């Protein structure tokens, strides 16, 4: 019996490595902002919580305009260097600058501090959009093979997760060095964020900048007779894409794990007998390692699991595991023993890793479905929707954390002059201390658990699996081959 010939891939190894390196760089830059901007604004820059809440929500309203606009621009323009690569030559340097500026505490009045924060936050968001949407659209143009595309997304998101872990390590370890020469805890906080931002901006920007020099766009887009008019309407009419977006928004509580670690380490958990900075570093390290093990294990496992399970099954199964683990964590309470907390957080992180990988692959499959059914394909707009979903879900998570402060009676901006209330041990009222600890402990337990369980609902209606997906992939391949043959004959 003859051996089955292995189908060669479209993307050479050198190109894959370049893309994964860029993914790591993107993770470096996005993580320092998404994980720590709220703690920085609330507990370091001492901005008013109402202003912070409004800033993040209003910025997302602007993203609802900015992200689709960026996607439409990318789909309609045809620059010589490629629809996606062109943006990646220009934007890494700009995002480097904004990433550093956003973590500067200027010596301004409270009002001018808010103005500075608004300008740098919105500027960072717009710049990141102009880089992020083209970058994550690249796999759609690198290969027409859905399996190779899925693997590229999977390994790219895994590399992105590795990059996201680096600023966490820096924020945990830098205070241990800084407090040897700086006695003021607030000054240590200022310096740890600024140094981390400079390192992540420089390294991340360099890794992103090398990507367009190596990666190629191979997949031609079908010509749209309407010149792109009505593209948003067709995207919104794409049922699998809409269901994927709804899942991403409803599962937004998963971002509380990452964005909430600094707050949990400051206001819910501590290491007895340790200084504030050492306690925070130790708690964050425990939480980060637990989350990293669960998240990276699931991300690495996805390509293997897809040989037996489809994306729908992986999402439902992982969200059930993570949701039940979160409920168990909350039931035990903030006095939980470290080994049990570690184990439950590891389980809670499984859907975080699965969603990080699978959602992007599902967007690619949904765009295949759109092209198959309409003859139109909006790579840029489709990925813009996914970018907006991530930002919206992240903003909802950070907004929920912001609201916890007034709910438990904390207002860090009022302690700016005295630098008081640096963590929960400084609270003298035992009733308030218990309320504060329980409130912030919910960030890594019951709130994301409910979010993950609710997100299963739209996925129950997702049907782009099995024979239907195989038929779409086969017929698209036949159409593209016929189009290439006609073009070569012309």
Q: What profile does the largest beta sheet have?
A: none
Radius of gyration: 23 Å
Number of strands: 0
Identify the overall geometry. Answer: globular
Order of helices and strands: HHHHHHHHHHHHHHHHHH
β-strand percent reads under 5%
Number of helices: 18
Q: In CATH's first tier, which class applies?
A: Mainly Alpha
CATH topology: Growth Hormone, Chain: A
Topology record:
Layout: H1 13-44, H2 49-76, H3 85-101, H4 110-142, H5 146-178, H6 185-214, H7 231-236, H8 239-250, H9 255-267, H10 276-305, H11 311-332, H12 338-348, H13 350-374, H14 379-407, H15 430-441, H16 446-454, H17 456-459, H18 466-489
Helix pairs in contact: 1-4, 1-5, 1-6, 1-9, 2-4, 2-14, 3-4, 3-6, 4-14, 5-6, 5-10, 5-13, 8-13, 8-14, 9-10, 9-14, 9-15, 10-12, 10-13, 11-12, 11-13, 11-16, 13-14, 13-18
């Amino acid at each position: 019996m003859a051996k089955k010939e292995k189908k060669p891939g479209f993307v050479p190894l050198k190109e894959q490595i370049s893309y994964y390196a860029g993914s790591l760089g993107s993770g470096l830059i996005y993580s320092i902002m998404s994980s720590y901007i709220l703690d920085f604004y609330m507990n370091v820059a001492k901005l008013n919580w109402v202003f912070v809440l409004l800033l993040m929500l209003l910025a997302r309203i602007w993203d609802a305009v900015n992200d689709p606009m960026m996607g439409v621009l990318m789909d309609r323009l045809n620059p010589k260097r490629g629809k996606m690569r062109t943006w990646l030559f220009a934007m890494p340097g700009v995002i480097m600058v904004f990433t550093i500026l956003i973590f500067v505490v200027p010596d301004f009045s409270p009002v001018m501090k808010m103005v500075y924060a608004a300008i740098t936050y919105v500027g960072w968001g717009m710049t990141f959009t102009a880089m992020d949407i083209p970058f994550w659209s690249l796999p759609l143009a690198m290969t027409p093979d859905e399996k190779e595309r899925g693997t590229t997304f999977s390994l790219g998101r895994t590399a992105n997760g590795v990059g996201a872990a680096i600023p966490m390590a820096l924020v945990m370890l830098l205070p241990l060095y800084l407090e040897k020469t700086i006695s003021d805890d607030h000054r240590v906080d200022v310096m740890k964020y600024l140094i981390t931002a400079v390192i992540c901006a420089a390294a991340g920007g360099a890794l992103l900048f090398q990507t367009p020099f190596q990666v190629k766009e191979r997949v031609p887009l079908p010509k749209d007779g309407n010149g792109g008019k009505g593209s948003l309407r067709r995207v919104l009419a794409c049922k699998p894409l809409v269901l994927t977006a709804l899942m991403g928004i409803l599962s937004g509580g998963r971002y509380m794990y990452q964005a909430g670690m600094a707050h949990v380490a400051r206001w819910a958990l501590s290491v007895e007998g340790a200084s504030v900075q050492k306690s925070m570093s130790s708690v964050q390290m425990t939480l980060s390692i637990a989350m990293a093990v669960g998240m990276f294990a699931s991300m690495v496992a996805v390509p293997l699991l897809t040989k037996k399970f489809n994306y729908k099954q992986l999402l439902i199964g992982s969200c059930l595991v993570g949701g039940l683990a979160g409920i168990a964590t909350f039931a035990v309470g903030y006095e939980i023993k470290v080994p049990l907390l570690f184990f439950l957080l590891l389980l809670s992180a499984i859907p975080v890793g699965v969603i990080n990988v699978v959602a992007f692959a599902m967007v690619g499959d949904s765009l295949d479905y759109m092209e198959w059914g309409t003859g139109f394909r909006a790579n840029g707009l489709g990925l813009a929707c996914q970018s907006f979903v991530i930002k919206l879900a992240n903003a909802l998570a950070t907004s929920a954390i912001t609201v916890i402060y007034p709910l438990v009676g904390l207002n860090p901006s009022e302690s700016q002059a005295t630098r008081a209330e640096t963590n929960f041990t400084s609270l003298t009222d035992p009733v308030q201390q218990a309320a504060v600890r329980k409130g912030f402990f919910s960030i890594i337990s019951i709130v994301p658990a409910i979010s993950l369980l609710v997100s299963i609902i739209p996925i129950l209606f997702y049907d782009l699996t099995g024979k239907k997906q195989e038929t779409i992939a086969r017929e698209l391949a036949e159409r593209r081959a016929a189009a290439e043959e006609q073009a070569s004959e012309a």
